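> tool_call: predict_assembly(chains=two)
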Amino acid sequence: GESVGLHLPTLSVQEGDNSIINCAYSNSASDYFIWYKQESGKGPQFIIDIRSNMDKRQGQRVTVLLNKTVKHLSLQIAATQPGDSAVYFCAVIGSNDYKLSFGAGTTVTVRA
Amino acid sequence: DVKVTQSSRYLVKRTGEKVFLECVQDMDHENMFWYRQDPGLGLRLIYFSYDVKMKEKGDIPEGYSVSREKKERFSLILESASTNQTSMYLCASSRTVNEKLFFGSGTQLSVL
């Protein structure tokens, strides 16, 4: 099965700085990668995704980078704001799969 | 936007009770999922369904069953609730295979 790990369980960042959250996966057949944000008391919310035919994708203030060679995924948040404080999960799925494999989550705390 | 609605936000039950958690999605998604989320353990898949009346076991199905009689509704059943089933339960849906999941807000279940 797929193993998905995050490098750091917590991250403290100064408001206005950039945040980088990392994730590693084990299955080279994985081809779809998703980042979720979960605020306290809420369900995970989709942030951004990337397919394996790409190595970078940008959204509003967020960028996902995919390095298939080393099976590594990262989420970059530009100009981090207090509203970005949450738990961030990466999720991985292979082609023809229904089930996502989730990392354990990184808790991001934004300091004023 | 996709909406996944879970019937209860908080639920308190007694050991041995039969518990029903209901989930409804409004986007005609094929797949529906039940996860539980516990501190330090991340999201763990209990059951999923890829079609009406179809179900498959996830990673931790013991003590649970599911029902999907209509495409939009997926129920999780705890046949005889136990204290170790105290957890946050999250329902999710996806349009088809190899697609991102949309989550509900979760049900915090306490079994006393």
